[in-house]
């Protein structure tokens, strides 16, 4: 993960196409990167998340997102159209959450930066 600052927004960013979290416990890697960089924002890509993250029935998304909420870290995930298959319930949850300030799913890196700037 690297710390990025663009348009006055500081965030940690996962590397596109690279695995980062192999289990729910690995959410701590993102939290550590945020604390080290002095930011409360993270921009991730689908490959940075656990394999079952987008299947809400696995419980992984809930556990990971709760860890981020506990530490008040905002997370946005860049999912290009058609790149990820969401479970029906995940899509509903993501749609609702993206309206808020804690978790978002957007289609481009630029949209992610805009979401983080809100």
Widest β-sheet, arrangement of strands: 1-2-3-4-5
SS elements, strand count: 5
Return the CATH topology: Transcription Regulator spoIIAA
Q: What is the approximate shape?
A: globular
What is the fold's blueprint, element by element?
Blueprint: E1 2-6, E2 9-13, H1 27-37, E3 41-44, H2 60-70, E4 74-78, H3 88-98, E5 103-106, H4 109-117
Parallel strand pairs: 2-3, 3-4, 4-5
Antiparallel strand pairs: 1-2
Describe this structure in words.
- The chain starts with a strand and ends with a helix.
- It has a single domain (2-117), classed as Transcription Regulator spoIIAA, CATH 3.30.750.
- By secondary structure, it is of the alpha/beta class.
- It is built from four helices and five strands; from the N terminus they run E-E-H-E-H-E-H-E-H.
- The mean pLDDT is 95.
- The protein has a five-stranded mixed beta sheet with strand order 1-2-3-4-5, sandwiched between helices.
- Helix content is 36%, strand content 19%.
């Amino acid at each position: 993960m690297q710390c990025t600052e663009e348009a006055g927004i500081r965030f940690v960013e996962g590397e596109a196409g690279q695995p980062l979290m192999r289990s729910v416990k690995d959410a701590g890697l993102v939290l550590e990167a945020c604390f080290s960089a002095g930011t409360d924002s993270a921009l991730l890509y689908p490959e940075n998340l656990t394999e079952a993250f987008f299947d809400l029935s696995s419980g992984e998304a809930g556990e990971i997102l709760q860890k981020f909420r506990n530490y008040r870290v905002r997370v946005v995930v860049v999912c290009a159209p058609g790149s990820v298959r969401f479970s029906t319930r995940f899509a509903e949850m993501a749609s609702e959450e993206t309206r808020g300030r804690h978790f978002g799913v957007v289609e481009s890196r630029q949209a992610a930066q805009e979401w983080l700037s809100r």
